[in-house]
Amino acid sequence: MTRPAFARPLATYRLQFRNGMTFDKAASLVPYIKNLGITHLYASPIFAATKGSTHGYDVTDANLFDPDLGGREGFDRLSAALSAAELGLIVDIVPNHMAASLENPWWRSIVEWGEESPHARTFDVDWAQPLTLTVLGGSFEEGVQKGEIGLAIDREAGVLGLSYYEQVFPLLPSTYKMALEGIDLPLARTLAECGSSARADEDEAFHAAIRQAIDADKEGMEALQTALKAVKPGSILALSQAQPYRLMDWKKAASGLSYRRFFEIAGLAGLRVEDEQVFEASHRLILDLVRKGIVHGLRIDHVDGLADPKAYLDRLRAAVGPDVPIVIEKIIEEEESVAEDWPVEGTTGYEFVAALAQLFTAKDGMTTLGAAYDRFAPGEAYDDILQDAKMLMLRENFEGEVKALTRIGKEAAGQADGAGTGSAEAFAGALRALVAGFSVYRTYGTDGPLNSADEKVLDAALAKAAGDLSVEERDALGDIEALLRGRRPGEKAALFRTRFQQLSGPVMAKAMEDTAFYRYNAFLALNEVGGNPVEPHPSIDAFHDAMVRRVSEQPEALSTTATHDTKRGEDARARLYALSQGPQRWIDAVGRWHATQAGSVKDLPGGKAPEPAVEWGLYQALAGAWPVGLKTDDAKGIEAFGERFAAYVEKTMREAKLRSFWAEPDEAYEGAVQDFVRQLLSSHTFLQDFAATLGPYALTGLYNGLAQTLVKLAASGVPDIYQGSETDDFSLVDPDNRRMPDFARLERLAQQPATIRLDLDSLESGAAKQALVRRGLAARQALPNLFLKGDYRPLSLSGDHAERFVAFARVYQGQAAIAVAPVRIHDLLEASGAQGLDTAAAEINVHLPEDLIGRTWHDRLGTDEAAVEADEILALSASAAAPFLLMTTEG
């Protein structure tokens, strides 16, 4: 199917395929998505993944549409529906890794054939040792002795292999004779002969021959299966040593893997897309879809995991041409920017979430919350927690990577001038200190010197690392510095540089997002991917600065407020922002609850459960996720919410990695914390107090949710709507945020006129937010160049409460838009409710710059788009949706 290229994305709608979302289900939603004003459907991975995958990032075949989603025929139906509606399609692709699973034919090939496999160089495997398969619940020897591991034939795959419960790991064909020695059966001899003559480049014919032999001798097959069960443990152990792989305890993955993995997930093996053949093989289908005009944009998963992101993106850009939008999943820290020479439109938008936190977080209130948290749960400062988490990752979770990098670095350093003669322990110590010293995810050096931005990053990390090192470790640090700055020649030096850069990113991600964010609970609204839990200077001016930069650096990056990876839903975060705007009421309530619930806290050998930091965080998490409209006497509703919240609590305890772990859960500790939560949710006294305390913050949160939506629609970047978040999104961290939304409800709401009503029913139902999305996206479609290319200008406001609002203009040639939204209004609402906010808004005036004076403005939030004449002043009260305003002019 060929169709013309679509215009640039003006707004995207992210669908999470799987969990009930199929191609046909998505096709049925096309009219609804179109009606919102979306221009491009933004699809999570749609290619074949492991059976039962809930996310699709564990790809097993990048050139096959997932049969569980509807296969090629289902995709074609979705594509036809999108084409008929004139909607584009952006697809999330995964170049960094694939599933380390026998379901993946490329991985199965290297398991079976080892270095003989055509795919031996497809994955980042160290073939100096056997391929490690972390699938066992204990040691291999124990598994054999217990009878868990044996020999079996997998007829469907056409292999003889080592069996472990339901899995059969194929033997190297040349070892079939060894495996079948002493079994005097015709079929055994046939299989041994097939194995002896097998070739890796003709493996399909080999497997077909095995199946044919089995089918031709069914009686012999039964006898052979019986004989295989009788093979002695010693023979199985000897046979295993002849294989190109080793089955090992999954708990040993951190220290003994022979391949690069995605983060710390042994089930995801790194791809070598820097190799042109691997690139072509793993991108064949997606490039075909792009070239035929069926796919109109690409989202690149985990670009920082690649050996050379720029080289990959250059190759991809050359393959898809200059007009296909490419956005990358990359976390930008503080003042970091996407490299100017990367041929991409920008990122998927986590830095936009961080910018919004600047807008809605009141600095004084955040400081007050932090001080109260420190009194309630005395402990390490956040910077120390993050540093401890990094060292934990480097010493335990990434122990194997550090060992391998130490070996490579020692060899590389020793290639020049006799350097690198210190101990491996000193080198590893210096290496850990340097990685832990990084303030960003990674540098991007390939051949030659680092660029100036990376030089600054490395300089700062070296200075931080050197402080606590021994003399020998400092010498080793000098060797590492020389390698990273490109001062050492040779392949080993280049390999060290690449592997170092591929390690620092995962360490930062796992230490910060998946450890420190679950340990430091002062103000959970800031514990977000791309964010900073101790943001030093949140301000409206800081938000303006970020948007000015965004126009300059990545005007077509996605502006997201929720994704499948965010720590909580966008409206949960919007509600929690209110705590910083009125902290004392919350602090007093936590002190009250702590006293009344003291009897539910258990004393365990490891300390109190929950400990104060966890208890503080639980109250905030409950506040963010509490469903709108859930009554304290709704037993069934509270039970359903409690099940979701229990999964969240389990994740927080294990991700914190303090008293319980995914690999070794502390059942007593986890049970005590879960009991505490159950007691909260079953206590009528607590629930009544909680609901009364939450009420004012919940109301502020509804307005905050509308405000951040308006800002997203009008500010720099391409607004991305995560499935269902066009109404209310109070979800918890994944997998909760990947649930299928109630699209029937969303479609019913969308059948109503797009009138923005600010009554409580409209706010709580999400109708007001959905109407705002529809009106705002209609404005974008009416003036696409303005919102895609326009400058961003902060505007000044006057009025008694001007500091509680944000205002900005977008200007492009003769076109302009002005947006105003309330961002710090909690005390107004708490004191006088919506009437207090309306009174404040009525006094707000927007001061127009000289080039926008004397124009006619059209109200984009009112159904009739009334015209407003304005000279130097534009009154917020002129908006039909005040205290929200979006007006445009065309000169």
Automatic annotation (TrEMBL):
Residues 17-487 form the Glycosyl hydrolase family 13 catalytic domain. One of its GO terms (biological process) is alpha-glucan catabolic process. One of its GO terms (molecular function) is (1,4)-alpha-D-glucan 1-alpha-D-glucosylmutase activity. It comes from the Bacteria. It holds the Pfam family Alpha-amylase. PANTHER family: ALPHA-AMYLASE FAMILY MEMBER, MALTOOLIGOSYL TREHALOSE SYNTHASE-RELATED. This is Malto-oligosyltrehalose synthase. It comes from Xaviernesmea oryzae. The lineage of its organism: Bacteria, Pseudomonadati, Pseudomonadota, Alphaproteobacteria, Hyphomicrobiales.
